C-alpha cells in the first residue's frame, strides 16, 4: 500500500485514478509521495520516506527542487495541463485592460438604489470608454505551453503578435502560428508593443523582469498582463509607471496588498488554473506520473531529474537509484551486481545537471545486503527496489 500526502485540495477525478493500492492522507508522517498545487514547501521538513513530489500544475517555485534533488527526491509537474485555462483568462485580461468594464460594473452597482439609474447610465457611460484590441501589438514573453496559446489567441483577436523566448522548444515552435513575429530581444517587445503578456517561470534570471529600466522604453499607455508570477514585475516600478501614465493598466493574477491599493491595477485572486477541466487535467497527469515512479521506477516530466522510461519490468527484479552526476557511478553500481553474479537484463542511465538516475532490471532476487552496498557508494542518494521476486 502506497501513501500519498496531499498539501492542497486535489481534484477527485485525478485522485480516483490512484486505485486500491493507494491511501490518500493529509496527516501521515511517512508518505511515499506528496501531491500539491501552490502550497509553499520551502519551510517544510521533508519526511525521509518521500520518494516523489507531484506538482499538479506548472510553476515549481513553491518547491525547493534543487534541495530535493540533492536528497534523491524526484519532483514532477504537469506541463501544459492547465495552459488552456490560463489562456482563456489572459484573453479576458486583454479585454479588461482595454475596456473599463470592471470600473463600469462597480460604478453601476454603486448606483443600484437610484430609481433613475438607467438614465444615469446613459449619461455617465462616456467615463468608461476604452480601446479595441484589433490592430494593436501584443508582445508575449515566454513561448511555452501558455505563451503559444496566448500568441495564437492574440492573432485570432486581430492583434499583431510578437513572441520572445530565447529557449523556445521544438514542440512550442510547432504549435506557434507562423504569423507570430519573432522578437530578438526583450527590449524590442518593451519598446514596440501596446500589450505585454508574461509567460515565463519565476527563476533568478526572471525576477523583476519588468522594471523601471525596461518600463522607460515603453510607449505611453502600455497594458501589462501577468498570469505567470508576481515577482516577475517590480511593484515599486509598476506604481511609478502607472502614476506617470506609462502603463495604463496592470492585470495580475498575483495581487498583494500594495498592488491592490494602486489605481490601474486589476488584481485577480490567482484564478488562472482554477477551472474544473484544468484541475482534472493536472491531477490526472500528476497521479499518472506518481504511479509510474512508485510502481515502475519510471520518471515522467521531472523538473529536477532526467526523464527515464523502461516500461513495466518483465525480469525478476528492478532497482532505481538516484545519484550524483559524477564519473564511475554506473561502473560502481554494476560492479556491486557483478560481484553477486547478478545478470543485468535491461538498464538506463540518464543525467540532468548535477544529478542522475539509473534504472536496472536484473534476472535474480536483490538481497538487502546488495541494496545496502549500492546505498554505500559515495554519490548515491536514494536506492529503491521497485520489484523483487
Ligand atoms: N496563473 C496561473 O494560474 C498559472 C497557471 C500555469 C502556469 N503559470 C505560470 O506560468 C509559467 C509558464 O507556464 P507554462 O505552462 O507556459 O510553462 P512552460 O515551461 O511551458 O513555458 C515557459 C517558457 O518560458 C521560457 N523562458 C524561460 N526563461 C525565459 C526568459 N528569461 N525569457 C523568455 N522566455 C523564457 C521557456 O523557454 C519556456 O518556453 C509557469 O512557470 C507558472 O509560473 C501560472
Ligand atoms: O503554476 C501553476 O500551475 C499555477 O500557478 C496554478 O497554481 P494552482 O494549482 O495553485 O492554481
TrEMBL record:
Catalytic activity: (R)-2-hydroxyglutarate + NAD(+) = 2-oxoglutarate + NADH + H(+); (2R)-3-phosphoglycerate + NAD(+) = 3-phosphooxypyruvate + NADH + H(+)
InterPro entries: ACT-like_dom_sf, ACT_dom, D-isomer_2_OHA_DH_cat_dom, D-isomer_DH_CS1, D-isomer_DH_NAD-bd, NAD(P)-bd_dom_sf
EC number: 1.1.1.399, 1.1.1.95
A Pfam short name: 2-Hacid_dh_C
Involved pathway(s): Amino-acid biosynthesis; L-serine biosynthesis; L-serine from 3-phospho-D-glycerate: step 1/3
Function: Catalyzes the reversible oxidation of 3-phospho-D-glycerate to 3-phosphonooxypyruvate, the first step of the phosphorylated L-serine biosynthesis pathway. Also catalyzes the reversible oxidation of 2-hydroxyglutarate to 2-oxoglutarate.
Matching PROSITE patterns: ACT (PS51671), D_2_HYDROXYACID_DH_1 (PS00065)
Molecular-function annotations in GO: NAD binding; phosphoglycerate dehydrogenase activity
Family to which this protein belongs: Belongs to the D-isomer specific 2-hydroxyacid dehydrogenase family.
Record key words, sorted: NAD, Oxidoreductase
Name of the protein described by the UniProt record: D-3-phosphoglycerate dehydrogenase
Residue ranges of domain ACT in the record: 318-388
PANTHER family, A to Z: FORMATE DEHYDROGENASE 1, HYDROXYPYRUVATE REDUCTASE
Organism this protein belongs to: Alkalibacter saccharofermentans DSM 14828
Record's keyword annotation contains Oxidoreductase: yes
